[in-house]
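User: Here's a chain of 360 residues. Predict its fold as tokens.
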Amino acid sequence: MNKFYLDKSFFSKDEKLVAENGNLKAYAFAYKSGVAAIKIVNECGYFIVLPYKGQQIWRAHFHGHDLTMETLMDEPTTSTVFLETYGGFMYHCGFKSMGWPTGEHKQHGEIPNVEYDEAYIACGEDGNGKFMSIGGTRHYEKSFAENYKFMPEARLYENSSLINMNIEAENLRSKPMEYMYLCHINFRPFQGSKLVYSAKRDADHIKVHKDIPESMPEKEASALLAYMDAVQCDPTIHDTVDFANQNYNPEIVLTLKYEADENGMAHTMQCMPDGYACYVAHPTDVLPVGVRWISNTGDERSMGMVLPATAEHRGYINAKNDGYIKEIPAKSKITFGMKFGLLTPDEVPEKVEKIESLLK
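Assistant: Prediction complete.
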């Protein structure tokens, strides 16, 4: 595998080719805000990573489908405030905390918009074919408290529309380190699509979080709560995307307990009317909680069909009380991976069959 490190001098308003491997190409450019971006392209489509800004995947587009949630935010900003630059496809959340902002931590922790120390592109070939990856390292140090490295890498194969996301985190201190993580994958909802996923449709496996904004007018709040109650009683009513008859304004959040396959992976799909499907596979040992976030405000639409996580989205204190906090041993590393992107009509039936077999 060949790897080369990026330099901020590579990035300007004009796209420039910086790497090739088979039909894979990487282009460097900068948004109007000055935020650096790498666009990795193959014959199926492309995804755009912000190498120095959280290693976010800002856009994903395959087989003519724009997979990224609908928002009014076309480009990333230089802000490090979560909602002030929130319009992308995927965000890493954590790593010491994640979820609701509290006095203990900001929204979704310190890593979503953190500046990376270094970023790279890697090219190679393995049993799955030629690939191109983009990754980086964020070294976080706080005297007498934390010293860790967070190292994600997003890989695309030559003829694939699935992104392989691999995470490595290293605790550099001589004591165990607590951590939390959530992969905030924001798909676009497609009218008439069906949600297919390896979690049983009952109250033991699906929980609706009935959180209503305090500022919401009483009539709207009552309607949203009524829909939440209906979904909790019968989760199947939200399994078909139906903009006219479902209430996700401003959002609904569920947590799911998944069944895993022989490799320890859970599966989630948004099967679209044209035969394609949005897809996520995640490991249930490291990421045992599937957070589902759906929003339809009129200005934003998102089908966060699963945000693989170590804990529910309710912040560090709740996670600690509920026994969800994980640890990395002293002077040790953890690694885990997941896949997400788009399945073609030829690939969909096999995944549906696998999910159905896990629910029997």
